[in-house]
Amino acid sequence: MSDSVLIRGASRFIKRKAGKLLATGILALLPVILFIPLFFLIPFLDTDDKEILPGRGAGGAAFVVAGEIAFQEITPQFIINWLQRRDSALATMEFANACIKAGRRYNVNPLLLVAITGQEQSFCPAGSPAAMLRNPWNTFGSWQNTDHPVEKSAMYAAECIARLSGGRPEGFHPVAWLNSTDNKGGMYATDPNWWKGVSAFFRELRTDHGDPPPLISGKFIFPIQTGYFISSSFGEMRSTGPHTGVDFACPLGTPIYAMADGVISGLVQGDPIGGNEVFVSGTDGRTYAYLHCSHFAAVQVGQAVKAGDIIAYVGSTGRSTGPHLHLGVKENGRWIDGLKLLK
Hints:
Layout: H1 3-41, H2 76-84, H3 93-106, H4 110-121, H5 130-134, H6 150-164, H7 174-177, H8 194-209, E1 229-232, E2 237-238, E3 241-242, E4 246-249, E5 255-257, E6 262-271, E7 275-282, E8 287-296, E9 304-305, E10 310-314, E11 324-331, E12 334-336
Antiparallel strand pairs: 1-4, 2-3, 4-11, 5-10, 6-7, 6-9, 7-8, 8-10, 8-11, 11-12
């Protein structure tokens, strides 16, 4: 046998052995090869079953939610008791726990989730359809188009709030931003007044819970926190000329909160037009006027007040046809629309 034949035979033998060894090695390494990309992919997978840290997505990124509507611990019993007083079919442990669990997961105040059901479904009065009780937030289009359990609907509502909260301009009302046409993320509802109803219910829930009035844009708060409607807008024409303020119609004795930080600059009693009046010189250079009060809180001229301090109570003194607060805001010597500061 020639040397060339021996060499070719040895070469074929080596190739067969090498091929078998290579195949065996690849099979042995296959689980590792497949696991490596999966290992890097796992943090980005978001499933309903994956445990997620409170206020963060599955990837660990925090949801940027304004402090005024961010998560706070609420007991299920508070939600149940509050809804029972409204004869709501949502006054169940299942609904309360769904709000709390979804709020914790997406860093959203559970009371805001409750408030949205008030605007969407009037808190589902007794006798409401079972499908509505499972989706009182009208997620996935409408409660009539879905049949998800209430926990899943709550999760989706909270996720929508968390994601729509991103990109909010400084000073923009956090609930109004969820409803704004300027929000590039979309809108929770197309009704332009949706946010006003939700905000009113949210303030009422927080007040009943004993929380301080929620700050708006870090500086301003609504001077009336609950149970009001705007009965007369700024600039509305009257027999005496344009209305120089905004009227909040609400029950007699409702607390009036300082809208901004400042110093009490005037306490007037019995004015024929404004009745009992409180004037605050704001630290921002504006003057804030609160008219038609029934009586003042324990304040005096020269006293410093913070936004959210109670300064008086709603009345119908002076030239008034019913209990309300006339809020006036003067800037650079001219009256301006105070509501614009609250948006």
